[in-house]
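Session log. Operator J.P. requested a structure for one protein chain; no other inputs attached. Running the standard single-chain path with token output.
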Amino acid sequence: MSRLLVLLCAGLLLAAFSTNDALAQKKKIEITKKWSGSVADEKASKPAVITSAKGLEKVWKEWKAEGEVPKVDFDKNIIVTAYTVGSLLNVNAVNLDDNGNLTVLAIATRDFRPGFRYVLAVVRKDGVKTVEGKALPKE
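Structure written below.
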């Protein structure tokens, strides 16, 4: 019985230290601007990241988003995205790990609606090498 208790305690300590190491390797990145909306055409493009004014203009027009195409300084920033077929979507966090991989944490409702909902979030691109494990596109 005491051997089982020692193994259990050792396992809990290992898990605690592993979790702290994983958390220490990620840095929360500030979202400076956000746009959200709905797109009727569920087959419309859904880029994971937008790195140029031309790329933003392309999806803004394809999605028939309301208003003028937003102005973003792409020399200093990129736009990360999130999508859902549910009725509501929110980007809760953007994290950058020690390897330069940016990840987006979004929460959405589980209901289904025609088309899709999106959130575009502007973040600084300093230190970003990949987004969700994929290289940054040119546009």
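Operator note: The helical segments are 2-24, 53-62.
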